[in-house]
């Protein structure tokens, strides 16, 4: 997988695609703070994670509605109802539909701003996995370019303001930032320099991976900040500094050029600060590693893809990987934040839910050749579909009424 943005209603492709505009004032302020030694040039080298000199070009015109929305303030955030780290289970997103047609769209849905971040009983595992990845892989997974520093700081401030209100049993606001009551971490967001990259600090607060793309003077959008720690199939270091289009085309994202690119560019350019969107996708994985799917190869190996994965592994190795993603524009910096929350469970557990085996089998069969190749169906499809068909038949044999499915389950559940 190239990036974790699924660009279809049913979730074809994953890619961190997000935008930002009007950073000049924030960049000037940042560079006054940043030491001359740290003020590195945007130069692309042969090593991953380095940026080429950003091209000078004609300035693109701002969208009036976007500018008018820059006064947006987050509304009062209510506490998540009855949230408890032990008892609040992951939400059961099942973002797949019956075939035979696999529709290719962006699949965005509006959400209320207060629904921005979701936390649950898996928080301890995600927190530990992220901490280990930050320590072991550093800038391969987390980095903030100087031009994106104001947006990264603003994201950190937004999380510090939001999380104690939404999850008061887990977080409390302090004079210098935020305290995690469970882990004991006390994060200072006002000191300079910060103790670590601002995106790393953001990553420790939530279960999501995070990405920020910054709009350039020529209207191109570049991935200039990220904490991509649990992506499974793609590497942040491969995509850091790329434009939105290059991120997709370098990963051979199916149908991007003909069906998605133009509409996506227009959407992101017009994204207002008071508009919050979510979308869901799904993938199959043939190992149980959340952070990196080792079944497709070593994380640092060149040319990783589904073609290197073991074929037809036993069903016990099949895992369902689903993402809940959000898009929003930050009002001060104009940076657009993309959050990627991964939900991960064994297929053998998933099929216990009514209607799910039959619907998932139909969805997997509906992938066209390019989507099937991208998602690796050739490596696991035979075993997976045989198992799903059998479980679907078991549900029918015990009297499951397919006519009532729409009354019980509605997309994306």
**Approximate shape:** globular
Report the end-to-end length measured between terminal Cα atoms.
23 Å
What's the total number of strands?
A: 10
Main sheet? 7 strands, antiparallel
List the secondary-structure elements in sequence, H or E.
HHEHEHEEEHEEHHHEEEHHHHH
Provide the spatial order of strands within the biggest beta sheet: 1-8-9-10-6-7-2
**What is the percentage of strand-forming residues?**
5-15%
Q: Name the poorly predicted regions.
A: 1-50
Q: Can you give the helix content as a percent range?
A: 25-40%
Number of helices: 13
Query: What structural category do the secondary elements indicate?
Result: alpha+beta
Layout of secondary structure:
Layout: H1 24-33, H2 64-68, E1 109-110, H3 123-137, E2 142-144, H4 149-166, E3 171-173, E4 177-180, E5 186-188, H5 198-205, E6 209-215, E7 221-227, H6 236-239, H7 244-250, H8 256-270, E8 277-285, E9 319-329, E10 336-346, H9 347-350, H10 356-366, H11 369-375, H12 377-397, H13 405-408
Antiparallel strand pairs: 1-8, 2-7, 3-4, 4-5, 6-7, 6-10, 8-9, 9-10
Helix pairs in contact: 3-5, 4-5, 7-8, 10-12
Task: Note down, in words, how this protein is organized.
This is Mannosyl transferase. Keywords: Membrane, Transmembrane, Transmembrane helix. It comes from Clonostachys solani. Pfam families: HODM_asu-like (PF11927). The chain is α+β, with helices and mostly antiparallel strands and 413 residues long. The chain has a domain at 24-281 and 324-346. It contains 13 helices and 10 strands. Strands 1-8-9-10-6-7-2 form a 7-stranded antiparallel sheet. Strands 3-4-5 form a 3-stranded antiparallel sheet, covered by helices on one side. α3 packs antiparallel against α5 and α4 runs parallel beside α5 (198-205). The longest helix has 21 residues, at 377-397. The two termini are 23 Å apart.
């Amino acid at each position: 997988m190239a990036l974790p943005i699924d660009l279809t209603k049913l979730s074809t492709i994953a890619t961190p695609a997000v935008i930002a505009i009007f950073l000049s004032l924030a960049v000037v302020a940042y560079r006054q703070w940043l030491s001359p030694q740290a003020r590195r040039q945007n130069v692309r080298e042969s090593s991953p994670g380095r940026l080429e000199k950003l091209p000078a070009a004609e300035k693109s015109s701002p969208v009036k509605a976007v500018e008018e929305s820059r006064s947006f303030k987050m509304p009062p955030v209510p506490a998540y109802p009855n949230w408890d780290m032990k008892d609040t289970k992951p939400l059961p997103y099942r973002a797949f539909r019956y075939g035979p047609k696999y529709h290719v769209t962006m699949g965005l849905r509006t959400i209320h701003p207060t629904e921005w971040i979701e936390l649950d009983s898996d928080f301890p595992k995600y927190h530990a996995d992220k901490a280990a990845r930050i320590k072991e892989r550093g800038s391969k997974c987390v980095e903030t370019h100087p031009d994106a520093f104001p947006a990264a700081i603003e994201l950190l401030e937004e999380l510090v303001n939001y999380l104690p209100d939404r999850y008061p049993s887990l977080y409390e606001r302090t004079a210098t930032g935020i305290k995690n009551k469970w882990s004991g971490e006390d994060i200072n967001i006002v000191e300079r320099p910060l103790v670590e990259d601002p995106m790393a600090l953001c990553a420790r607060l939530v279960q999501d991976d995070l990405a920020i793309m910054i709009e350039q003077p020529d209207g191109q959008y570049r991935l200039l900040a990220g904490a991509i720690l649990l992506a499974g199939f793609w590497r942040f270091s491969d995509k850091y500094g790329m434009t939105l289009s290059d991120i997709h085309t370098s990963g051979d994202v199916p149908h991007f050029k003909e069906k998605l690119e133009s509409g996506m560019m227009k959407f992101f350019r017009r994204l207002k600060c008071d508009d919050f969107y979510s979308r869901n996708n799904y993938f199959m994985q043939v190992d149980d590693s959340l952070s990196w799917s080792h079944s497709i190869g070593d994380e640092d190996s060149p040319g990783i893809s589904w073609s290197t994965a073991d074929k037809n592994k036993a069903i016990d190795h099949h895992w369902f990987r689903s993402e809940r993603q959000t898009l929003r524009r930050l009002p001060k910096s104009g940076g657009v934040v993309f959050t990627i929350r991964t939900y991960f469970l064994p297929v053998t557990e998933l099929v216990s839910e009514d209607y799910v085996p039959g619907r998932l089998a139909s969805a997997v069969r509906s992938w066209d050749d390019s989507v099937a190749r991208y998602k690796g169906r050739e490596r696991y499809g035979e075993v997976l579909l045989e198992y799903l068909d059998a479980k679907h038949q078991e549900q029918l044999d015990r009297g499951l009424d397919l006519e009532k499915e729409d009354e019980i389950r509605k997309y994306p559940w």
